[in-house]
């Protein structure tokens, strides 16, 4: 099987700090702009991690106190700092941070999975080194979920008997390095009466695929995140397409970014479809379309 290094993708990270001074990072593609912290309107019944609402070009923007959200000490001067405005998983929010440092460019292989010792309460998806200093990559989906938990919507349309039968035959593997995103996807599948295998990295996904290949539980439908540490969804897709046993595997890439900006790159990598997180009905519809391809008759 081809190695991950052969398919490493370029990645741009925005580095920032909180009060502790340690470096954190967020995928630059998830950032729409950086602005000084504006005047905020405080909402008395808002989540305690929400500092207030800013008005940005006439549009309200919820501002999350990132320090509080991830269990760090609050900023020394809560009126200073800046906002990292993000567009993630169909929502827009401002992250209040101490300061923005700089932008770095690296390869996805430079981002290592988060240390096992950090546990499931961790708000990072990976780590890297910049000039000898540890940088932690923020799990922005988990931060947003702590403030505004996603509601798993039921699909509006009842599945036809044929589509329900196709989905029942599907052997699905869901891959995501964000614990929250993985839980959202698996819960949506469970609500459809489906069971799936899960993996927290592309390497783990390949191990599962190889383990089950040729047996009764062989995977025939892969749902993979794109923005993963060490080996992203594009690289995973390209690797699988170069592996004879997996050239026919149906691959749906699931991204927290706008799927339209990823569609062409996903197609070139060899994915069958791409979808923006997180809408349970849209995920259901994508899985139905996938099952129709995998089980045409």
Automatic annotation (TrEMBL):
Task: Note whether Phosphoprotein occurs among the keywords.
Answer: yes
Looking at the record, the residues that make up the CheW-like domain are: 10-149
Q: Which residues carry this modification: 4-aspartylphosphate?
A: 225
| InterPro entries (alphabetical) | Chemotax_regulator_CheV (IPR024181), CheW-like_dom_sf (IPR036061), CheW-lke_dom (IPR002545), CheY-like_superfamily (IPR011006), Sig_transdc_resp-reg_receiver (IPR001789)
Pfam families per the UniProt record, alphabetical: CheW, Response_reg
Domain Response regulatory: where?
A: 171-292
Q: Does the keyword Phosphoprotein apply?
A: yes
- Record keywords: Phosphoprotein
**Protein name per Swiss-Prot or TrEMBL:** Chemotaxis protein CheV
